[in-house]
Amino acid sequence: MNDSILDLIGNTPLVKAQTLVKNPNVALYFKLEGDNPGGSVKDRAAYNMIKSALDRGDITKDTKLIEATSGNTGIALAMIAGIFKLDLELVMPENATIERVKTMRAYGAKVTLTDGDGGIEGARDYAEEKMAGGDYFMFNQFSNNDNWKAHYKTTGPEIWEDTKHKITHFVSSMGTTGTIMGTSGFLKEQNKDIQIVGVQPTDNSKIPGIRKWPEAYLPKIFNPEKVDRILEVSEADAVAMTKRLATKEGIFAGMSSGGATAAAVRLCEELEEGLVVSIICDRGDRYLSSTIFD
Fold it and tell me: Does the pTM exceed 0.85?
């Protein structure tokens, strides 16, 4: 038995790919982050950012919180803020799927939608302006060390133990970069030869959850020295692999997971041998109103 839903964050399953890898000398495992109670890998960072801010006294129950999000972090923050009885406003582009917006509101958060053409950058600008007025506290997941530390404390150790220390490559989409930064930090301390592979979209490809940031918006927590290699994935390949994950592996996930998997499969086919772990960021049910599964 668990005392709180928060106790269910982390310790997500690791499952071996059955059909996607043809190389007999390489095993690909998926870290199923959709099994977190809020449905994504962002539960880890959201909990650590909120709990650490409360513990330090940076925020109290009376603090007005604001955060820009493309979806999963907002859902996680809304769930956890509700548990801690915190006042939270989330800002996201108006072209986000309705499932994400409704889920945040279901957890009790206020949701403000910004112009879709401005993307997440526009949402970030809006939140920054509100915070500059002095009435709000912003976690700013893009520059908050509690983001990547969540993965240093949990995701990395779980993968290390669950692979019995045999992991050779770690593959992760790069958005805020918290997952790859924290996991890389832990895994490299265990074995410096483990290769950390980041995934970005090709030019003109739009993959929710994976970004190639303009210089002005590059996450401050990102340290390029913690990533050994970056693979680019097209929007078409991400969509196709998202569908293959569902139909061939029984893994129902979002487009960023499809993008990471496409890169991981490509990596597996070029290796002589290895044990590759790739992050499945979330669940596919929050994208049903999009065209991904049409």
Answer: yes
